[in-house]
Amino acid sequence: MRQNFISLVSHEMRTPLVAAMQYLELMGGNIVGALNTEQTRIVNRMKSRLSDLLALIDRWLELARIEDHQVTDDFETFDFSPVVKEALEIIKPLADEKKIKIRDMSGDDVKLNGDRNMIKEIIVNLVSNGIKYNREGGEVTVQKKQESGFIVIDISDTGFGIPEEELGRIGKEFYRVKREGLAVGFGLGLAIVKKILDIHNGRLEIKSAVDQGSTFRMYLPISTAVIGKTAAASCNCSRESNKKGG
Fold it and tell me: From CA 112, how far away is CA 24, in angstroms rounded?
């Protein structure tokens, strides 16, 4: 039933919206005749609203897909640093547009076990939020450390911050922080992040203060295979040391 409904939304709603966007592109490009200033303004406004609606549908479908993806068939052991670089490359045009500086301080590589594309989606979502809810010329910083079998990733921004009373509602579907003059997103980005972290036995913590920015900290288990190798290597080193000492 659920899968049928998702297919219905994908085809019966998204397909005609894409067609409508294509017609607007033709009109905006003067393919069907020259537009005056007012007509051009109206067409551009329609394109903007249609893009918002398509983005909402895409986000909703992505969330539904992730909720149905409770198996770990796509899990693999992979290097984390290249995933960060790929995610930041995707989001770079948005950062450039707002003159936001992205600082990658994730440091040395570490291996994770999980769905590589989903982990990249997390980075894209969190860094994207740090850009959208930031001041022009601000910064977003990505940092990483290891802690008790987890890789801890901090994504911090110099943005508007989140009121304390709203922190508990962040990450709920269709909820977004209310700020006058700022209407970006549909509140699905963090819901997607939380769903992905649940699948990976991870978690998300948020620290924020109004006009002082926010830090989104996520915990992801380090690959058990890597932990095992590290422990084995440490054990072997100890044995060799004991032999030499004896």
Answer: 44
Per-residue pLDDT reduced to its tens digit, 88-116: 998 999 899 899 999 999 877 888 888 89
| CATH class of the 76-227 domain in this structure | alpha beta
**Cβ–Cβ < 8 Å for 143, 153:** yes
Residues 224, 176: Cα–Cα separation, whole Å: 36
Q: pTM for the complete prediction?
A: 0.69
Domain range list for the chain:
2-68, 76-227
Q: Tell me how far apart the alpha carbons of residues 213 and 209 are, in angstroms, rounded to a whole number.
A: 6
What is the tens place of the pLDDT at every residue in 17-36? 888 888 888 888 777 778 88
3-state DSSP assignment of residue 23: helix
With H, G, I as helix, E, B as strand and everything else as coil, classify residue 51: helix
Lookup result for tokens 């990505």: 142
